[in-house]
Amino acid sequence: MRPHADLARKLSTIPGVKETTAWTLIAELGTDMSRFPDADHAASWAGLCPGNCESAGKRQSGRTRKGDRYLRRILIQNAWAVSHKNDCFLTALFFRVASHRGLKRAAMAVAHRVLIIAYHIIRDGTEYREIGGDHYDRRNPEKTAQRLTRRVAESVDTFPCPDGTLFAGKRMSNSNPLEPFVRRGAV
Questions:
Q1: % of residues, the chain, pLDDT over 70
Q2: Is 187 inside a domain boundary?
Q3: Does 129 map to a domain?
Q4: Whether residues 81 and 158 fall in one domain
Q5: Which end is more exposed in the chain, N or C (fewer Cβ atoms within 10 Å of the end residue's Cβ)?
Q6: 40 and 97 co-located in one domain
Q7: Which residue range forms the structural domain that includes residue 155?
Q8: Whole-model pTM above 0.90?
Q9: What pLDDT is recorded for position 81?
Q10: Backbone dihedral region of 151: left (phi > 0), alpha (psi from -120 to 50 degrees) or beta?
Q11: Residue 133 falls within a domain, yes or no?
């Protein structure tokens, strides 16, 4: 274990990866990444890639294969832990996928990404460089502004736009806000 202590420390720079996960990655993947032509082959070997079953142009089951059960389990547990971190790229990835595909598939996507990152750390000997939880917002600021404007419009009656006009959002009724909870006919 002594010769790989530095590698375990580098793997521990990945968010959510602690000592046990780092040693499991080293034990299951090894330190020689020449066995895998690229990171995608390593993810496929570990069973962290979606299935690709298509027949007659129809996509069928996207079920993942079993792969290495120890590595797969610990990386999915790691993904659930990462989902609770603040201002982290992997957390942003988790919630981005979860909003459309569900929590379990999001955990699988984050586990896949952690394995890809670990592959490059083991192969190149580098450390993880955090790009931030707002990575997707910085990538396309116009789309982010439209999304946030739409969310504000849904929650308030009117608000001023940057160009000085008044934007009418969701109309709130002037009635009692507790009306759904008040019994009809009660005095």
A1: 77
A2: no
A3: no
A4: no
A5: C
A6: yes
A7: 140-181
A8: no
A9: 93
A10: alpha
A11: no
Distance from C-alpha of 51 to C-alpha of 40, rounded to nearest angstrom: 13
Average pLDDT of the segment spanning 132-147: 86
CB 17 within 8 A of CB 7: no
In a domain, 45, yes or no: yes
What's residue 171's pLDDT?
46
Number of domains the chain is built from: 2
Q: Please tell me whether residues 34 and 85 are part of one structural domain.
A: yes
Question: Among 1, 41, 47, which Cα is nearest to 23's?
Answer: 1
Segment 64-123, tens digit of pLDDT:
777 778 888 899 999 999 999 998 999 999 998 999 889 999 999 999 999 999 999 999
Separation between Cα atoms, residue 3 and residue 9, nearest integer Å: 12
98 shares a domain with 7: yes
CA trace torsion 114, 68, 84, 98 (10° rounding):
80
Which backbone phi and psi does 62 adopt, to 5 degrees?
A: -105, 25
Spatial separation of the C-alpha atoms in residues 90 and 82, rounded to whole Å: 7
